[in-house]
Write a structure and sequence with these properties.
Blueprint: H1 7-24, H2 27-36, E1 41-42, H3 43-50, H4 54-66, E2 70-75, E3 78-83, H5 86-99, H6 106-114
Helix pairs in contact: 2-5
Amino acid sequence: MQAGLDLSLVRARAEEVSGLLKLLSHPNRLLVTCELADGELSVSDIEARTGVAQPNLSRDLARLRAEGIVSTRRQSKQIFYSLTDPRILAVMRALCYAFAPAPDAANDTQEEYAQ
């Protein structure tokens, strides 16, 4: 744990955070949120980047939207999705980059976790 971290606050929100992690533990939803960590994307862009079939993608995006993880913006006939909460954005960036770092950062990350 970090120095100065108030563990009582973590305890108070443990149920909420656990629910969020459970929601994100599905492989498709994890892929989608990792892609959205880099910014807003259209449904077709999300489908192309993740390889998740459209019916499954629609279901997962609806679930993420219902839980307040993503929000939408319509432009003409396209719908764009983005992560709603900066805390979720920070978590997803940390998680995705820890397990799939950019090629130039891969060695730094492996050395950092080995210590």
